[in-house]
Write a structure and sequence with these properties.
Shape of chain B: globular
Number of strands of chain B: 5
CATH architecture of the largest domain in chain B: Roll
Strand content of chain A: 25-35%
Strand content of chain B: 15-25%
Number of domains of chain B: 2
Strand order of the largest sheet of chain A: 4-5-10-6-7
Structural class of chain B: alpha+beta
Distance between the termini of chain B: 46 Å
Radius of gyration of chain A: 19 Å
Helix content of chain B: 25-40%
CATH class of the largest domain in chain A: Alpha Beta
Largest sheet of chain A: 5 strands, antiparallel
Number of helices of chain A: 12
Oligomer: heterodimer
CATH topology of the largest domain in chain B: Ubiquitin-like (UB roll)
Strand order of the largest sheet of chain B: 2-1-5-3-4
CATH topology of the largest domain in chain A: Uridine Diphospho-n-acetylenolpyruvylglucosamine Reductase, domain 3
Bound molecules: flavin-adenine dinucleotide, FE2/S2 (inorganic) cluster
Number of strands of chain A: 14
Largest interface: A-B, 31 and 32 residues
Chain lengths: ~290, ~160
């Protein structure tokens, strides 16, 4: 038997899940898609007293358009996002990023809530959340709060969610009509975690350009590249401005070295991928 | 720890077993239900040998607890044959040398079936991307890619 012993609960409502979390007082783990947590259990790197399985809480899986936002329930599978017509139409950047998340059999189970709560700095969804200025909703015993990406991600695999809170929803503002987008990434093999990834969106309105850029894998948290965005917002989407934005991006990131890549290489990639992402996004923009 | 009862449908037949909640679905299939066609390699989601269909979608059975599959419909490699005949995808693997030792084959077949369901006529690049979910240490993948593309053609009229 690979995983260590644990008590197993599969509540069917969010309230029951919250009550169980409170009862275990920090010793329980929430089980979403299990694509990150079960490997940790199998390696016995995680030894929770209990698992609270969210998979029977059907009310946590949905994709709805509401008030200029797309709301995605925490238990929405990455696969459902990949094939959602609402996501394809309103959040093409999220759709493109999803194709980079592992492989189809991983996306069958993996969830958007788990992907964001796990806070792997190389993961694609946190970068998209950051680039699109989305929010997450967290529910705890004291009620609900919404957090921006900046308020949520603390460092590697660490968020500001309290042990008795559940991430219930991800809210992403609908991308404007005519917006261009691109998710560029370099990984060792297709489906592996990114060494570095860059999410980009650009749109024009009233003669002005708006740009959004965020990285994955270039530091302990996803990083918004505001100063690089400003270059194309000021100078437009021509080749020279895009090149300058790429250079700026590599100055902005603060990557660390690990077994996959040195800090210098990641810095270099942040620049190259920013340039590529902006170029492709600009081509797609109306 | 108390054992739990798991009732599920495997390859169209109702099956039942009792196990600890920490038992992985792949071990439950192999040890409790005697379905050893599903292989177990890395046990952390990387190799794909344990891939089965769960309610129609390909997924890693080493990353799911057996208790989570209560009520689910599972297809394993044992469920692919019909009336004593190989599934057209299996035929294509035989025809195009899509296997050597066969260790990756069950996971490869179920991954490819899911790929062909979501994308009935994939390009070579799309097949390569799809099967990159499963590691093969023997074939060098060329035969597998050929087999999946050939099966896409044979399976097309029936879909
Ligand atoms: C082979 C392989 C390749 C992969 N490649 C990629 C990749 O390229 N990019 C990528 O982004 N991911 C990748 N993943 C990870 C995958 O996307 C996971 O699905 C994801 O990181 C976690 O989501 P999950 O739903 O599986 O969560 P789980 O594994 O169930 O949970 C992860 C963590 O989040 C917590 N959690 C889950 N849901 C909530 C919630 N609603 N509220 C609060 N806490 C919660 C859990 O307690 C746990 O600590 C890969 C996984 C594998 C096995
Ligand atoms: S045994 Fe499940 S992916 Fe390797
Ligand atoms: S045939 Fe031997 S691992 Fe694929």
């Amino acid at each position: 038997m690979k995983p260590p012993k644990f008590e197993y609960h599969a509540p069917s409502t969010l309230d029951e899940a919250l009550a169980l979390l409170a009862r275990y007082n920090g010793d329980a783990k929430l089980l979403a898609g299990g694509q990150s947590l079960v490997p940790l259990l199998n390696f016995r790197l995680a030894r929770p007293a209990a698992l609270i399985d969210l998979n029977r809480i059907t009310s946590l899986a949905y994709i709805r358009e509401h008030d200029g936002h797309v709301r995605l329930g925490a238990m929405t599978r990455q696969r459902a996002i990949e094939f959602s017509p609402v996501v394809a139409r309103r959040l093409p950047l999220l759709r493109e990023a999803t194709r980079w998340v592992g492989h189809l059999p991983i996306r069958s189970r993996g969830t958007i809530g788990g992907s964001i709560a796990h806070a792997d700095p190389s993961a694609e969804y946190p970068a998209v959340l950051t680039a699109l200025e989305g929010e997450v909703v967290a529910r705890g015993p004291k009620g609900e709060r919404t957090l921006s990406s900046g308020a949520l991600f603390e460092t590697y695999l660490t968020t500001t969610l309290a042990p008795d809170e559940i991430l219930t929803e991800v809210r992403l503002p609908v991308m404007p009509e005519g917006a261009g987008w691109a998710f560029e990434e370099l990984a060792r093999r297709h489906g592996d975690f990114a060494i570095v990834g860059v999410a980009a969106a650009v749109w024009r309105s009233g003669g002005r350009v708006t740009a959004r850029l965020a990285t994955a894998g270039a530091g302990g948290t996803p990083r918004r590249l505001r100063a690089a965005e400003e270059i194309v917002e000021r100078d437009g989407l021509g080749a020279a401005a895009i090149e300058a934005a790429g250079r700026r991006a590599s100055e902005l990131v603060e990557p660390d070295a690990d077994i996959h890549a040195s800090a210098d290489y990641r810095r270099h990639l942040a620049g190259v991928l920013t340039e590529r992402a902006l170029k492709r996004a600009a081509e797609r923009a109306a | 720890m108390t054992a739990a009862t798991v009732r599920l449908t495997v390859n169209g037949a109702a099956r039942e077993g009792r196990c600890e909640p920490r038992k992985l679905l792949v071990d439950f299939l192999r040890e409790d239900l005697g379905l050893t066609g599903t292989h177990v390699g890395c046990e952390h989601g990387i190799c794909g040998a344990c891939t089965v269909l769960i309610n129609g979608d390909a997924a890693r059975s080493c990353l799911m607890l057996a208790v989570q599959a209560d009520g689910a419909e599972i297809t394993t490699v044992e469920g692919l044959m019909r009336d004593g005949r190989l599934h057209p995808l299996q035929e294509a693997f035989r025809e195009h040398h899509g296997l050597q030792c066969g260790f990756c084959t069950p996971g490869m077949l179920l991954t490819a079936l899911d790929l062909l369901r979501t994308n009935p006529s994939p390009s070579e690049q799309e097949v390569r991307e799809g099967i990159s979910a499963v590691l093969c240490r023997c074939t060098g993948y060329h035969g597998i890619v050929k087999a999946v593309r050939a099966a896409a053609v044979t399976l097309a009229p029936s879909r």
